[in-house]
Specification:
With about 325 residues, the protein is α/β, with parallel strands linked by helices. It has ten helices and 14 strands. The strands form three sheets. The chain has an eight-stranded mixed β-sheet with strand order 1-5-4-3-6-7-14-13, sandwiched between helices. The mean pLDDT is about 95.
Length: about 325
């Protein structure tokens, strides 16, 4: 397997202070990226295969149906994927790209070592003309350390991961992508759209309970990282669509009154029924997306969707090169 390049700049002291601050807030929360350790990444792959989780298979259908047009528009020599996971969805796109170009370099960028290894395993046997590069880092904190390319590059951010960001973080991320794009580069973004909230709620509450395990796993990660004493049996998985904010909100809800010892040796009391927010997943309207793209200096070249309009892919370019 190719060597993993770690570009992450970690400040454990600041991370610890951030976790303490978030847990001491009246509305408690934990940083979402702690959901995606090696086990969390594996569980998320399982979630993507559940009957209820429409996002992955819908996006895959759109990608399969429009891959040739996307590649015609972007004509990349390199494909760079943020939060690549196992790269399963991208495999067909890469295979089609190799039929058009003699050589393709694919950059798999993810926070999880396990996900990067899964990505390599998915792609290593496609072709000897495919160069797979593995980069470990956080796409919010480490994007400034990604080098611009001298070759035509297609950036990918699929799976509606953008929905995990609040508006300010989303604009900041898109702005950062725009900054590393050259004139010839393109950016393919996958987003989940507004729809019947029953369908949305079911996607985050699967019958097999995989999402519940995925959510509770964050406590094991936090315990290990900061030597805390969370007991996952004291919490229920709670995921519900917030209509006003147009987002799923995933919580861990305490079933008993208890306390935990924080990294600063302070006791934190958690009441029965008190909730800790672990993730949001926003569902986008065209109006919201157009506002985000405008603020990030990005322009839509083409968009693709499914028959039910559950999900959309947007092919974007940075405006600084489109308009003099």
């Amino acid at each position: 397997m190719n060597k993993i390049e770690n570009i992450s700049f970690e400040n454990n002291s600041n991370n610890k202070e951030n976790v303490i601050s978030l847990l001491k807030n009246e509305k408690k929360s934990l940083p979402t990226h702690y959901l995606y350790d090696d086990l969390g990444s594996k569980l998320f792959e399982e979630i993507c295969n559940t009957e209820e989780y429409y996002l992955t298979r819908t996006e895959q259908q759109i990608l399969n149906a429009h891959a040739l047009d996307i590649l015609k528009e972007a004509s990349p020599l390199e494909i760079f994927e943020f939060g690549s996971g196992s790269s399963k969805k991208t495999k067909s796109l890469i295979s089609k790209a190799l039929k058009q170009k003699k050589y393709i370099t694919y950059f798999s960028f993810d926070i999880s070592t396990k996900a990067l290894k899964m990505s390599y395993d998915q792609l290593k046997q496609i072709s000897k003309n495919l160069d797979v590069q593995l980069i470990q880092g956080d796409f919010n904190n480490d994007i400034c350390r990604i080098k611009k390319s001298k070759r035509k590059r297609l950036y990918l951010f699929l799976g509606s991961t953008l929905g995990n960001f609040n508006n300010n973080v989303a604009v900041n991320f898109l702005n950062n992508v725009a900054k590393i794009m050259n004139k010839e580069d393109s950016f393919l973004l996958g987003v989940d759209k507004v729809k019947d909230e029953k369908i949305i709620n079911m996607a985050y509450n699967d019958k097999k309970g995989i999402t519940k395990r995925f959510n509770k796993n964050i406590l094991k990660v936090i315990n290990k990282e900061y030597k805390l004493n969370f007991n996952e049996n004291n919490f229920l998985h709670n995921a519900k669509f917030n209509l006003e904010k147009s987002q799923i909100e995933m919580y861990l809800e305490s079933t008993v009154e208890h306390s935990i010892r924080l990294p600063n040796n302070e006791d934190l009391n958690i009441g029965k029924g008190e909730k800790i927010l672990t993730e949001i997943s926003r569902k986008f309207s065209e109006k919201t997306l157009n506002s985000l793209f405008r603020k990030a200096n990005l322009s839509i070249i083409k968009s693709y969707t499914d028959k039910k309009k559950y999900f959309s892919l947007y092919l974007l370019k940075t405006k600084k090169y489109l308009f003099p």
